[in-house]
Amino acid sequence: MKKRVGIEALAVAVPSRYVDIEDLARARGVDPAKYTAGLGAREMAVTDPGEDTVALAATAAARLIRQQDVDPSRIGMLVVGTETGIDHSKPVASHVQGLLKLPRTMRTYDTQHACYGGTAGLMAAVEWIASGAGAGKVAVVVCSDIARYGLNTAGEPTQGGGAVALLVSEQPDLLAMDVGLNGVCSMDVYDFWRPVGRREALVDGHYSITCYLEALSGAYRGWREKALAAGLVRWSDALPGEQLARIAYHVPFCKMARKAHTQLRLCDLEDAADAAASTPESREAQAKSAASYDAQVATSLGLNSRIGNVYTASLYLALAGLLQHEAGALAGQRIGLLSYGSGCAAEFYSGTVGEKAAERMAKADLEAVLARRERVSIEEYERLMKLPADAPEAVAPSPGAFRLTEIRDHRRQYAEGN
């Protein structure tokens, strides 16, 4: 009998401050609608040098263990997916292991492939457990990143930061994954990159969107082929993609989810048996169905619109936002997930929402996580952005959260709030 493997629970950590996106628009002399309607943004998380990738990852992992009553001795793997790590040798995962005083009898490492890195870690953990190599242990996968483009840049309103910690086990209360049905697509492209020594990424924006959509098409078609063979979906009056209750996408900015959903529907419309009877224009018009987007995608974007881009964690914020609002209604139903990382790699996979998903999400208490944040002025945001990364201010961490306090002889020192 095949093991049921997937995500048992999750926890979210976000920076302690945020700016209102309309405040940012007005400060930049831009019509707020360009950011709210054009990008789908409401708020943007703002980090300071003390809230680095390690601090966010450790806070999310500690929160997961505490909220979900995880026995640390059962953790056999700790993986951190990130593209904003703080060292080229020592992984974020080793910092997290030490800060949380986790057992030595575990595998620890980071996974890097732009925004796809978290999914790479999740799949490694799922397959480790499904193969039996985990021998009954669980895995913790943390997606932790800070999206930074700089003041007065085109990418400024799409910044953000945070972490999502996932508990992966044979008790998939949140999402029982369809192991082995994944569709993947990867290409060597220069759509987005961050050379060694740079804090801000470089991006070819329009090209990156093109790469995202092309990789999505390959990954979705790969999943669909396997799902059709397994009888999970079929060609009928409802397109294969419409037979998924919901679809969560990688969200560099919320409006991208609409573009992604249109592209996925276009894949089905182009490949349907009766495609020759329609025109490219009619298929594109049908692909842009607002009803389909509203039904399958829109409810997943609440957290992303209030936090911003979190690179590896963006897809999992969308999953968290979806389950925060609809876990009970979706219990027993299959959903799809699309992960994309520049450079580039995409993976489409699916799973069934667990019967205990609503109970697990209640423990994550996501509204309280957001409510603890402080709204700051644009002047304070700009001051924080100009601080050097290696000189954190003397700010006491909030209860249960971690902060970088100093870098001494190249060694990073962290403190936990009481």
Automatic annotation (TrEMBL):
It comes from the Bacteria. InterPro entries: HMG_CoA_synt_C_dom, HMG_CoA_synth_N, Thiolase-like. The modification Cysteine sulfenic acid (-SOH) is found at residue 115. The modification Cysteine sulfinic acid (-SO2H) is found at residue 115. GO terms for biological process: acetyl-CoA metabolic process. CoA binds at residues 31, 34, 154, 206, 208, 259. Its EC number is 2.3.3.10. Keywords: Acyltransferase, Transferase. It is an enzyme of class 2 (transferase). Belongs to the thiolase-like superfamily. HMG-CoA synthase family. This is Hydroxymethylglutaryl-CoA synthase.
